[in-house]
Amino acid sequence: MWRRRVLLIFWVLGLVLYALPVWSGEISIFPFSAIRKGMKAIGKTVLLGTEVQEFSLEVIDVVQTKDITDSYFVVLVTDEKIRSLGGILAGMSGSPVYIRGKIAGALSHSFETQDHLVGVVTPIEAMLKIWKEEEVLAPLGKETSVVFCFGMGNRAWSRLRERLGETYALRKVLAFPRLFPGKSEKQAASLEPGSAIGVQLVTGDAEIVSVGTLTLRDGDRFLALGHPFLHRGKAQYFLSSVYVNFSLKGDEFPFKVGTPIEIVGVVEEDRSVGIAGRFGVFPKTTEVTIGVKEGTRRRDFHFSAVQEEDILVDFLPELLLDAIDRTIDRQSPGSVDLKFRITGENLNLEDEFFWVSEPDIATFTSNTFRRILEAFLKNPYQPVNVENIALEVEVFPEIQRGWILSCDFPRIVKRGEIAAGKVTVFLYRQGIRDVSLQVTVPSDFAPGEAEIVVRGRGGNSGEPREGTFTADFQEYLNQKLDELRSDGVDLEILAKGSVPQKTTYTRTHVFLPFVLEGDASSKVWVN
Length: 527
Description:
Blueprint: H1 2-19, E1 22-24, E2 27-29, E3 40-46, E4 52-63, E5 72-77, H2 80-84, E6 96-99, E7 102-110, E8 118-123, H3 124-131, E9 146-150, H4 154-168, E10 172-176, E11 196-204, E12 207-218, E13 221-224, E14 233-248, E15 255-271, E16 274-279, E17 285-294, E18 297-306, H5 309-328, E19 334-344, E20 347-357, H6 361-377, E21 386-396, E22 401-408, E23 412-413, E24 418-427, E25 431-440, E26 448-456, H7 473-483, E27 489-495, E28 505-510, E29 515-517, E30 519-526
Helix pairs in contact: 4-5, 5-6
């Protein structure tokens, strides 16, 4: 008899232990090993505004592998309000799932079925590995994020969508006019599990953000999504609170449309089983200002972007394209004068370019500026932390292209002094014009007969010029920028014959607001 009593006691104790939470620090979790088919579950998410609501689920399958990060369980939505919206919405990723009042995981994604009522849940134990900085081996399914672009025109958005789709394999990139949360929703800061969050790359006059749900909060730490955002490992993204404006069923899947309210923290880990970061800590940013002018019309734009070189190279050219499109309100040939200044710690790069494009000046400017950013940010020498980028763009409707006809300099020039001359050009649909030029003759230039040559740079294809690789970063950067320069002319002084230990050749670039082709020369005598 006593043996039966002992067995009964152990059986009851086993049931009690089975129902008790497993503690990870102060976090009460329902263990993945205890999840069974048929269990009822509760999820939390925001469907409108900022109010967290509960919704009902049922476990219909459990998939356990050797590694918890590759395991998951499957749930069926039994909640009528979620069903009425078309099922699990993009933006519900990260919704905490509770069994018997204990957190069991985060809703990661829905199966691509017609009703989207079946979803995959990432075990909370897998997500906690991010906090422990343990290796996370495998992503769950094929789920990636939906990214919203607010305040961007269709052309820039389409180009950005194509680029992001290729580079980051995002589920969808959608464009919406700028939306605003109600003023009463500005009390955003007290986020809790189930609250809507935004993982944000750009804020300001355009917003680029992915909407998700907060899974778990422990003081100033958080876990969210249940799947990767861009899957970049270590990260520095904005974390924002979000107001859910409305939900749409969509052609492929239903999704929430949410507007960022305010930046509340930083995303520091972007892993296969979710994202992690901290509240009250903010990422390093690159402040971007773009001023666009055409005639008397001018518009100014300001953005804050995360300080990651790939993000800046992918996003800033499209923001520049959109700024030009919104200012000139057309797609047409033309010319552009671009001045830029890039600054940061021990960094100050300032330059000016003049380009023409007969198909479309805005696209040409955007594409060529991307090549400048690539040369600068992706250099093989050193990482570059860019704090500020200031762009001044002046657009001209005319094609300011021309051809060099002749040049004229004084017959006698002196070493160490400025030689003033002129070049005669024929400008596209404007006729003949004289342009004044100056060049300084080096003080050690070889005396005697020489030749001043004026060469247009309009034939510059942007391809690398002949030369060897240099180990000096500044020289490398100058070379890369020189490859993209098509404005103005190069002034060359060539000495006749060979004079030992004397300068016999020098070249100077002179900026002109034209793209000129051809060359001309003027014979001089150097005293």
